[in-house]
Amino acid sequence: MRALQLVDPGVLAVVDIPVPDIGPDEVLLKVGGAGLCHSDIHIRHLPVELFPLPLTLGHETAGTVVSVGSQVSGWTVGDNALVHLIWACGSCPACARGDDNVCESAGRMAQPPTPGLGPAGGMAEYMAVPARYLVSLGDLDPVTAAPLADAAMTPYHAVRNSTRALRPGSAAVVVGVGGLGHVAVQLIKTLTGARIIAVDVLADRLQAASAHGADIVLAADESTAAAILDATAGRGADAIFDFVGAQPTSDLAVETIAPDGIYQLVGIGGGAPRITAEPRLGQGWPYGASVRTSYGGTKADLIECVALARAGRLKIDVEPFPLTEGITAFDRLESGSINGRAVLVP
Asked: Which end of the chain is more exposed for a tag (fewer CB within 10 A), N or C?
């Protein structure tokens, strides 16, 4: 089969490798679509080998079951399925209470094994998957549904953990309305009564955010903080969802988060919000505000995202690429010329 692999640090290649064998608790998935994420860009450019190479990339995978292991129940050939990207142990206290995305087997790193970051991922024609990490897609198209695994689940988890701040009439800011951000706009619109302010550097992404339900769209520039404060009567945003995570966006959050607000720092752009232990005088980090990071989401989050998609309440903007053009898709995403989510189709 063909697969897109990281063959050396910084080097991608479409290669021919054997179709994987499956164990008794696994299924073989014929991949229908594999989403491409900014995390994959980071993996591409890691200067050292953190995972055994070559590594088949891809942690947003959907497809059709074509073979079932001898100990697998509940799945049959022909079923459409989505791969949960959190391959947690399933038995530790965190998993038992449903917090599998902070599985204790991962230690303080709090990043359970993830396909494409150790185990072979889904940017291939076939993928072997332990059956307990599958979620039924029903009648959803695997190509358009693949990004639900991360582009929907990750913002869903962040929004779900911010509901105390998202009361009717509150203000939510979404910074970066690309692959995850345009989904976050829809989730906030569907799940809360908050007004939504979308921020991005690209006009076409802001246009898409408006189409998906944003109430205000703002170009990211030196006037953005003042515009957010103006739109919130000077108090600031009750919740900020930062899908960029660079220093300018962290600075924006510090300047515009409301007292007792929640800053969800989702992007991994290296930003560091300046939070200092000093008197609060109406500038900088206010009293009561909190900052939170999270890795992906739980299997329950993913199941609920699939339910929203099946009900027509959630739509991911997708640009498909043949698997053989996967390197082009990586380059396009890195250049910022992908709106929504790139999906590789074998």
From this structure: N
Q: How far from 30 is each of 23, 64, 108, CA to CA, in Å?
A: 16, 5, 34
Q: What is the DSSP letter of 6?
A: E
Residues 29, 112 share a domain: yes
pLDDT of residue 49: 80
| Residue-number span of the structural domain to which 308 is assigned | 2-150+296-344
On the question of pLDDT at 281 being above 90, the answer is no
CA–centroid distance for 196 within its chain: 19
DSSP 212: T
Q: Are residues 80 and 203 in the same domain?
A: no
Q: How many domains does the chain have?
A: 2
pLDDT score of 46: 86
Retrieve residue 321's tokens.
């690429």
In terms of domains, do 27 and 64 share one?
yes
pTM higher than 0.90, yes or no? yes
Whether a cis peptide bond, with omega within 30° of 0, leads into 54 is yes
